[in-house]
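Readers outside the structure-tokenisation community will struggle with the description of the input data as it stands. Showing the layout once, in full, would remove most of the difficulty. For illustration, here is how one protein appears when written out as sequence plus structure tokens:
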Amino acid sequence: MPIRAENIKYVYSEGTPFRTLALDGINVRIDRGEFVGLIGHTGSGKSTLIQLFNGLEPATEGKVEVDGTQVGEDKKKLKLIRQKVGLVFQYPEYQLFEETVEKDVAFGPINLGLTREETDHRVKEALELVGFNYKKIKDASPFELSGGQKRRVAIAGVLAMKPDYLILDEPTAGLDPAGRNEILGQVKKLHEVSEVSVILVSHSMEDIAKLVDRVIVLYRGKVHMQGTPKDIYSKADELERIGLGIPQIASIVRDLRNRGFNIKQDILTVEEAKEEILKEVRRRNV
């Protein structure tokens, strides 16, 4: 069963001079096992939409369903929905507070009323899913870890709740290159080895191109387009018109095509570009 948003509208400050239509007629579906990228200019409605998926905000109009259960229809079911849809906000390490990594990750399962045995199992599993050696990390203070490690601990805290869907809002914001690679590598591995669906909100066109199966583009509160990364980034001029960029390698390929190079335009990796350029060079030298 999927997450499904149907005819969603969301209005901030209704009935005041500051009324803002944040989402306008949104229809999207996130299937089990998908890795979806959500992109859009600042103010396009990305953060509002993911909060509707988790039940943190109610839709003004329309409905959101998670595995067939309508979000907000029954307040008693909100707890279950928030277990199913794990949401990791920007800078989640600011929410770390326990004296050890193990206690921090255990906080959610304990509050679900799980047994000590089941909690211990979930903590170990979650920490290993984000790339830690459980025995080496469990007694460490989360405040003494690197930025990337802290963020992985925060993600483990959400994973310990056993969500079916994991939403990551700018998971690499503020990290150095090593921290970015650390987080993205673990997110990719997590999706490959587990059954969790991942929704990645990011301003990095490179990260989206490398990781996701499908891209949803929001613009002024509407779904502007959606498709595979190759489909989306082949529309470079349209993306730039709405204030978004394209991966650097895609920009280079576009420049080469404009200079007469007969190479494919749907290239998103350095390896693909290298292969196409070599083919073109060989053709020219024949």
Notes: The chain has twelve helices and ten strands. The longest strand covers residues 20-30. The radius of gyration is 21 Å. The longest helix spans residues 177-193.
